[in-house]
Protein 1
Amino acid sequence: MALETCGSCLSCLLIPLALWSIVVNILLYFPNGKASYAASYQLPNYVWYFEGICFSGVMILLLAVILIALECSVFYRCCQSDSCNKTYRSFISIVLALLGVAFSGYSFIIFTLGLIHGPFCNSSDGWDYIFKDTAGGYLTDYSSWSRCTEPANVVEWNIILLSVLIALSGLQLIICFLKVAAELKRTLCGTYSGFVQAGIL
């Protein structure tokens, strides 16, 4: 019952998460607060996938707005029966929530791989992913961070921002899963109630 009741508030939670995802992803383009690295394409490859801006950002934001619109009582009636109309809306909500799972799941994977792969930085050997063979071991090897000489503090910058993005996309993933479960419960229970009221069962 609680899951079904919270179904409507879950969509609202996606909006601030999507906005924060866009803001944090944009910050990845300005390591150490400088735009020169983005202009010269001296940024990690995963930054150019725009997953934080497009997928866990704009796409999740659009899905949340549509889901909220579907939950409004003023939504367009697709059929004469109120029960049919609710079932139709629940079906669309399930499809949209599954898309949300796909978008946030993709972002979560890319952010995680980006964190494991490490930043693209300048070292004594030139510009490269100097931590790519550590399988994420550099995250706890603080002494190795000084190997990245440019941009300044890029390792800390990437770890903090990517960790935040992983958390945001992870929360989006959980919320979308809960939304699917809530709508499935609403649809199945509503269908069963409709059968009972019609005298079928």
Protein 2
Amino acid sequence: MASPSRRLQTKPVITCLKSVLLTYTFVFWVSGIVLLAVGVWGRVSLAVYFSLLDEKATNVPFVLVGAGTVVVLLGTFGCFATCRGSTWMLKLYAMLLSLIFLIVLVAAVVGFVFRHEIKTNFESNLNLALRDYNVTADRHSEAVDTIQRTLHCCGVQNYSDWEKTEYFTQRGIPQSCCKSQDDCSEDDLKDPGKAKLKVFVDGCFFLVTSAMESKMSVVAGISFGIACFQLIGIILACCLSQYITNNQYEMV
């Protein structure tokens, strides 16, 4: 049996660790809410871009929403485990934090490795969307119009890409490329020489990928920050569990 002075020294450490871990768990729980918000924001703000990507890429926001939900639930469990001071619950909490850390880290690495593949895939789908563009308001045609109006661009590499499409032979360059809707007639849009003065000449591919990279870097930065933040929780949970175990042995 350990001396009373030894036990008196251990208890304040446990109390301090509990307070720090509770504070951490609350922040971790809030970070789950942030992940949920980022996932929803990414789905809404990048929806038009995701519509021109493969289905796998469009699942990224849903993955963040799912991860945010898991973090919120795990944060609640961590708070309960800390308050109870249960060693097995704290160890389980640390193990689950480690698992989520590894999953997020692997996901970030995979996203970084395949970022060029996503660009190539987007360029290919954008070219297909131009080729099959029509006025029946299908999903891809709407996405092309939205991108061109929002980013003030036209075509894939430049406005002349439209000259290779079937739509151009019928209607010319789409109205969504016009700098001013009031000064952009169908006759102008059918004449490449006149159209050059009426429409945006820069292509959309570079502007879209730049916009996507800037927004996805925000998503990746927040996700990576939360993943690294979990290391603190793992260390705190392990330390608290060890101190509680030692204190129980000292009382025997």
